[in-house]
Amino acid sequence: MVIKDTPEEWPVTATTTPFTGKKTSVRTDEVVMPDGSTVTRDYQVHPGSVAILALDEADRVLVLRQYRHPVRQKLWEIPAGLLDIPGEHPLHAAERELYEEAHVKAADWRVLTDVYTTPGGCDEAVRIFLARELSEAEGERFEVSEEEADMELARVPLADLVRGALAGELHNNCLVVGVLALAAARHGAGPDALRPADAPWPARPFAS
């Protein structure tokens, strides 16, 4: 038995978009079940995201602390952002986000893992990269606003983040998945065996 997610699409008899926002929308589908009945499914339509676990030479991860209004908390997170340009190469988006949020660049990029954040209610797909060989980016710092203007930046040992995730002290999806995935990779074939940065991503196809 092969444990692997596979594409499948059940028939949709009708679809509407009752809400359209700045970046995302809500879709309502009438979906035919295997027994022939039809049910309504509401879900958020999302362009997709990239996230970056940036690891420095001292085995510290670059993290940001940002206010997240829906959960009314300041969360420690790894740099991340939307795939704003349809078909954009996710590596290019990741490089941009790392520069904008941390003014850092990386010489070595790997795909750490790909996830659906909340597949029961949203189609958001996230590619989490491992970025190494970090250095300060050239040029002016990117001008931030709104919640990002209040962000804090830190470099935290990977082991501390793993402990915090398992202790229930850290809750950001990409941070938790990223640090645990890197820890698992180190116990396996090692980070150098991870997929290349341009590995195919069926959830969000891109131009090479």
Automatic annotation (TrEMBL):
- Can you give the residue ranges of the Nudix hydrolase domain? 44-183
InterPro entries noted in UniProt: NUDIX_hydrolase-like_dom_sf (IPR015797), NUDIX_hydrolase_dom (IPR000086)
Q: Which Pfam families did the record assign? A: NUDIX
Keywords of the record: Hydrolase
Q: Per its UniProt record, what SUPFAM superfamilies does this chain match?
A: Nudix
> Source organism's superkingdom?
Bacteria
User: What PANTHER family does the record tag this protein with?
Assistant: ADP-RIBOSE PYROPHOSPHATASE, UDP/ADP-SUGAR PYROPHOSPHATASE
| The protein's name | NUDIX domain-containing protein
Record organism:
Streptomyces celluloflavus
